[in-house]
Specification:
- With about 250 residues, the chain is mainly alpha-helical.
- It folds into 2 domains: about 5-110, no CATH class; about 115-245, no CATH class.
- The chain contains 10 helices and 3 strands, in the order ααβββαααααααα.
- It has a 3-stranded antiparallel β-sheet with strand order 1-2-3, covered by helices on one side.
- It is elongated and about 75 Å long.
- It is found in: Cell membrane.
- One of its GO terms (molecular function) is transmembrane transporter activity.
- This is Threonine/serine exporter-like N-terminal domain-containing protein.
């Protein structure tokens, strides 16, 4: 095996791992996909180590190890499914290594996402249903839609323009609580607490919590702990935003 082939295997496997990690996949699933690619390419002793922000891969020969950073955080199951499917096509000899690399680059760049306006609508609708599930009043049904949508918009915009973790959730919880209290003072809200809880639920890091426990159970203690801490901080920030508004109004 020449050096160019080894480098292609490393680059392709690391690309697959980065796409999956940045899209919200569990660490053990990322490792499984990367090792599946390497072993089918002829490197049976390949080893990988995945954390929340870094992916390490070694072919256990003179090429040494390489690192790929996972810089972005998102939730995109379509990217995960497409990457996993391509790796299985490669291991079944349906596509070549070069084709796998090219198609993974297309997944990384061209995977479609839902329009922003559609996400806003879904956030509003989800807020209403979650509010009812949590025991809220049907009289607050219409109020939950714009409040939940507004909270989501604030969270996305603050994250986009500041690039800081957790600050977007703080501002979103402040805006949500302010709008709920405003409507309550106008006599348009019957159950303030449940309305706040329902409209905040779309911002709660449910995927991070689930992935953290699955990584912990799979033995990836470092990644599981990091994700657990991230989820705890996010939940705490949401609570701080609520407390700030309730104490000031």
């Amino acid at each position: 095996m020449n050096e160019e082939y080894k480098q292609t295997v490393l680059t392709t496997a690391l690309l697959a791992g980065r796409i999956m990690m940045e899209s919200g996949s569990e660490a053990y699933r990322v490792e499984d996909t990367m090792l599946r690619i390497c072993r089918h390419a002829g490197f049976l002793n390949a080893e990988s180590y995945v954390t929340a922000t870094g992916i390490f891969l070694s072919l256990n020969d003179l090429t040494g190890s390489q690192l790929q950073q996972a810089r972005r955080r998102s939730t995109n199951f379509e990217r995960i499914a497409n990457t996993n499917q391509l790796s299985r096509l490669y291991t079944s000899n349906a596509i070549t290594l070069e084709e796998l690399n090219h198609r993974l680059q297309e997944v990384d760049i061209n995977t479609p996402n839902f329009p922003f306006w559609w996400k806003i609508i879904c956030a509003g609708i989800a807020s209403t249903t979650l509010m009812i599930i949590m025991g809220g009043s049907y009289y607050d049904f219409l109020a939950a839609i714009p409040i939940g949508a507004a909270g989501y918009v604030v969270s996305v915009l603050v994250s986009k323009y500041t690039g800081l973790l957790f600050i977007n959730d703080l501002f979103a919880s402040i805006v949500i609580t302010f709008l709920v209290l405003l409507l309550e003072n106008m006599g348009l809200v019957t159950d303030r607490d449940m309305l706040i809880v329902g409209t905040l639920i779309p911002l709660v890091p449910g995927l991070a919590i689930t992935a953290a426990f699955r990584d912990l159970f799979a033995g990836h203690l470092l990644t599981g702990i990091v994700r657990s801490v991230e989820a705890i901080i996010t939940a705490s920030v949401l609570g701080i935003g609520i407390a700030l508004m309730l104490s000031s109004m």
